[in-house]
Amino acid sequence: MQHKVLVRLEGELTALGEALAQLADESKRKDETLARLESELKARAEALDNAEARLQFLEEAQDKRVGRYRLTLMAVGLALVSLGWQLAGLVGKG
Predict the structure, then answer these.
(1) Sign, CA torsion 80/85/88/89
(2) What angle do CA 29, 46, 44 make, to 5 degrees?
(3) Which stretches of the chain are assigned E, i.e. beta strand?
(4) What is the distance between the alpha carbons of residues 52 and 45, in angstroms, rounded to a whole number?
(5) How many beta carbons lie within 10 A of that of residue 88, not counting itself?
(6) Residue 1: strand, helix, or coil
């Protein structure tokens, strides 16, 4: 009787060992997947940070260009007004 119990317990222990080995393998695969996903997430976060910095740089550059265009337009406008006054003076004298 004891022998049968020992054989049954040994079988159960073997089955539990195999199940534990399968769980360990599955856990290892999940850990590897998690590490890969964390690495990909980190790379994407860095890419996003770089894209945000580039966008900010481009926005600042665009703001500077718009400012220069405004100054240029104002200078052209003042030159046209001055030219208009000069023409009006010439026409008025003539």
Answers:
(1) negative
(2) 45
(3) none
(4) 10
(5) 10
(6) coil
**pLDDT, position 94:** 61
Unique residue bearing structure tokens 């360990």: 24
pTM for this entry: 0.55
From CA 76, how far away is CA 59, in angstroms rounded? Answer: 25
Q: What share of the chain is helix, strand, coil (3-state, %, to 5)?
A: 100, 0, 0
For residues 89 and 2, what is the distance between their CA atoms, to the nearest angstrom?
127
Q: Which two tokens stand for residue 32?
A: 């590897």
For residue 56, give both structure tokens: 């900010």
What single DSSP character describes residue 94? -
19-69 pLDDT, tens digit per residue, is 999 999 999 999 999 999 999 999 999 999 999 999 999 999 998 888 888
With CA atoms as reference, report the closest residue to 90 among 82, 78, 27.
Answer: 82
